[in-house]
């Protein structure tokens, strides 16, 4: 069995991120007007107008994916201390972070760096994703994992077994 995963990684990946992801799922499914207004106010429907059916379906499906994302972290990562399993899942999460950020490009490139203009959604969609991606890169690079983490960090890239 692998050495224990250091506390900062466990706290973020097993508690902080799943909780914030479930919060995002709640807003995407249950507070769709607010979710859309915070994402892009100019294109969001007015509060007294219904959310278009296709948009409501897409947001509910997004919420479902957020729940899956949280469950993968909570259930898979809690089931093992095997760093190869952790690395495989963390690689997938890092790729999802990059895809999530790429999905924001239509909002304009300044959304990635004008943090002083961010609203709550931007802090979640950009700031929190930056934090998550940085945490994952540190984990994958072996920072804080000791020499055992450094020696096996390439396993996730070369061996998804």
What's the helix and strand layout?
Layout lengths: L6 H24 L1 H8 L13 H26 L4 H20 L17 H22 L4 H7 L2 H4 L3
Helix pairs in contact: 1-2, 1-3, 1-5, 3-4, 4-5
Question: Would you mind describing this structure in some detail?
Answer:
With 161 residues, the protein is mainly α. The protein has one domain. Helix content is 69%, strand content 0%. It is built from 7 helices and no strands. The longest helix is centred in the middle third of the chain and has 26 residues, at 53-78. It is elongated and about 55 Å long. The two termini are 16 Å apart. 20% of the residues are buried. Residues 149-154 and 156-161 have low confidence and may be disordered.
List the main descriptive attributes of the protein structure presented here:
161 residues, 69% helix
Question: In summary, what is this structure?
Answer:
By secondary structure, the protein is mainly α.
* Main beta-sheet strand count, sense and barrel state: none
Q: What integer value in Å does the Rg equal?
A: 18 Å
Question: Structural class per helix/strand content?
Answer: mainly alpha
Amount of helix: 55-70%
Give the termini distance in whole angstroms.
16 Å
Strand content: under 5%
Low-confidence stretches: 149-154, 156-161
Order of helices and strands: HHHHHHH
Mean pLDDT: 91
How many helices? The count is: 7
Shape call: elongated
Count the beta strands. Answer: 0
Structural domain count: 1
């Amino acid at each position: 069995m692998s050495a224990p995963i250091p506390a900062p990684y466990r706290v973020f990946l097993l508690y902080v991120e799943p909780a914030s992801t479930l919060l995002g799922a709640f807003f995407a499914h249950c507070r769709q007007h607010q979710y859309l207004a915070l994402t892009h106010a100019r294109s969001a429907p007015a509060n007294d107008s219904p959310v278009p059916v296709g948009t409501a379906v897409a947001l509910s499906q997004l919420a479902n994916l957020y729940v899956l994302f949280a469950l993968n972290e909570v259930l898979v990562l809690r089931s093992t201390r095997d760093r190869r399993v952790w690395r495989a899942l963390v690689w997938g999460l890092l790729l999802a972070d990059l895809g999530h950020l790429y999905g924001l490009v239509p909002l304009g490139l300044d959304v990635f760096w004008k943090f002083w203009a961010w609203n709550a959604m931007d802090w979640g969609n950009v700031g929190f994703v930056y934090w998550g991606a940085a945490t994952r890169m540190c984990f994958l690079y072996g920072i804080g994992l000791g020499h055992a983490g450094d020696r096996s960090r390439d396993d996730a890239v070369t061996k998804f077994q």
